[in-house]
Amino acid sequence: MDIVNNSIKRRQFLKSVIAVAAGLPFLNTPLFAKTTTVIKKPIPSTGELLPVIGMGSSGTFEVSGNSEEREKLLPVLRTFFDNGGTLIDSSPMYGSAEAAIGELLKEVTNKDKLFSATKVWIDGKKPGIEQMQRSMKLWGVSKFDLMQIHNLRDWKVHLETLRQWKADGKIRYIGITTSHGQFHDELETILKKAPFDFVQFSYNIENREVESRLLPIAGDKGIASLINRPFQRGGMFSKVKGKPLPAWVKEFDCESWGQFFLKFIVSHPEVTCVIPATSKPHHMLDNMGAGLGGLPDAKTRQRMIEYFSSL
What we know:
Helices cover 41% and strands 13% of the residues. The strands form 2 sheets. Strands 3-4-5-6-7-8-9 form a 7-stranded parallel beta sheet. Strands 1-2 form a two-stranded antiparallel ribbon. The two termini are 30 Å apart. The protein is built from 12 helices and 9 strands. By secondary structure, it is α/β, with parallel strands linked by helices. The chain folds into 2 domains: 1-37, no CATH class; 38-310, NADP-dependent oxidoreductase domain (TIM Barrel), CATH 3.20.20.100.
């Protein structure tokens, strides 16, 4: 079978998979006897289910208002929704990303299950309110599902505002974030004393520091965890370039190194959702495949760590 036919059958299979997850008839004839469903995990504070694969927008959706470059991202967004995605994460820090998301959402017809997540990233109560209102206009939404305090910036001031916004129905969930190992000590202290629905930080098979600190706190406090930098900004692919996947990854329905990395992350009991970012539709399709089928158990996770470390 040639590469093109493989790609076509892969898309047909994924559409069939999503139909199963939604309780709908197959959109295409299934290609395999064994079917899979979209993996979802509950948000601890409410029990609402989220697909374990979301979408980030840092870098990839920063197209500086260039309409031609923005339109190239439309297939990425459509692939995300076509394959069961819901949570999209952004921030005012990401330049024109929020504006690009808002414009592209106007062209997507199956976005009814969008879970909108962005951040406040500024000092001061009034500037924070104005920034969040601007984000609403850019996205074209009347309220956000999740508003996060980006990199702990002026968190005490913004938390007070977010609590009021949540009470007023302007947002549904409150979160706080950090990335690439920043502020872990301070974040740990904050999570122990202040109420949050979500926390976001970096975690991957190469950087597992949060396994001993932040993930256990999230589990104990009933806080959903969003994971950024799952590929170390692409650095982990250099390590595995040209190297075949071990045969045993088929046991948990893994078909690529990208899925290997993502399935490792979302198989952790305290991880709710991972948000890889991409500007390429075929990479998005591969990412979404990590949210289908099985996940490695604790013994297999250790085997994955040992195998990756040996490369």
